[in-house]
Design goal:
This is Xylulokinase. The chain has 18 helices and 24 strands. It is an alpha+beta fold. It folds into two domains: 278 residues, ATPase, nucleotide binding domain (Nucleotidyltransferase, domain 5, 2-Layer Sandwich); 163 residues, Nucleotidyltransferase, domain 5 (2-Layer Sandwich), CATH 3.30.420. The relative contact order is 0.13.
Amino acid sequence: MRYLLGLDIGTSGTKTALFDENGNTIETATYGYDLFQPQIGWAEQNPEDWWQACVIGIKTVIEKSGVQASDIKGIGLSGQMHGLVLLDKNHEVIRNSIIWCDQRTEKECDYITETIGKERLIAITGNPALTGFTLSKLLWVRNNEPENYKKIYKVLLPKDYIRYRLTNVFATEVSDASGMQMLDINSRNWSDELLKDLGIDKNILADVYESVVVSGHVTKEAAELTKLAVDTPVVGGAGDQAAGAIGNGIVNEGVISTVIGTSGVVFASTDTPKFDKDGRVHTLCHAVPGKWHIMGVTQGAGLSLNWFKRTFCAKEVEDCKTSDVNIYDLLTEKAAKSKPGSNGVVYLPYLMGERTPHLDPNVKGAFLGVTLMNNHDDFVRSVLEGVSFSLKNCLDIIEDMKIKIDDIRISGGGAESEVWRQILSDIFQYKLTTIKASEGPALGVAILAGVGAGIYESVEDACNKIVKGGDNVVNPNPELKEVYEKTYEVYNSAYPRIKDI
């Protein structure tokens, strides 16, 4: 039997997952690390923490599985998108990585828009200037830390830093690179004209490949640390959303995915690049060669429930420690006790600004409509509903772009909640299907590794064999259509009222 390894370098931790060639999960391991917030709206991590989590994770799954390292035929890398990793000429990290949810770069985004022009920028990169993307972070370092900027030898994304540590190769691939906002998504290569206009040296960027291409091989040094076999192939891989989409079989037009992770995403595969003229959703290269994807993002999805738990649920957390009940199961049970519409409480999930449909790094979150009759259950449910309304904003734009929707598949940590799945289905008024591929991005990049290693003919072929849908279907309750339409109107009316607070 041949095996494939998937690494998913996430925001809260790195998941290492070993699969056989039929897509069955053999062994997984997850190791966490810290997120640093030096100022309000800033978010940073130490790349060394990612690497240590990968080393421990790889050793763990190999040892626990009993699989021979020589039988692992390929490694795929996934990771949080948009993070800025800077290396000097000695290949040492210059500063902590500024990660995807950091919001410090508003001035740099204004500069990019003024220099390139909004319409031209969308035509080249598929997106307006965004605070979360890598380009604005690089310019922030140039403007605010000039000594660090002068030291830059290479700019990498989080997963591509792990690639370097495994292979000693500087490389990236089209799906993650297009989230840096320096790639021409039409030609699927770096944009010489954009880089020239912004005064960025192209040599500091890594070589860019299609996601299934073998970009390097495990070095002797990395093999000794991880117990992998020397020269094991490492493919391009994918950004976490494109990887998760492949893990859910989102490789053809008409099949849409909704992911409730730390952030929330609505994702559609397209055969040609399609753009929202206002740039409210992201158009990026897909990890499937010759395809693109459209992605709407809400910054604070699972992040909102995690924040609510930490801030307002001390008693529930303590109770769960003694009763061995999962805190999120307890909270969603409380949400189920509240009525649809949360008895008038409306939650705006703008804890880290927002991306879709409001390109606004400064907007703040809120609970609205609170009265004396409201209780804890209402607030929990309003968080689940508010995140779902934000995801519906994403879906509405994709529908307006005339993207075909035949099937919506749901995944991510939030999707493990039966209550949250039902709320989302009732707000979308679409049937939702959960997928067996619970490993998501790790499975997606293992599939890419299998294509690169010659185990599968294509990504589509692999997904047809491996990804099985329909094991859990959630149908919308038509009787709730009206109540949620009314609450959705209130939700949508709130942003213009609170955006300047």
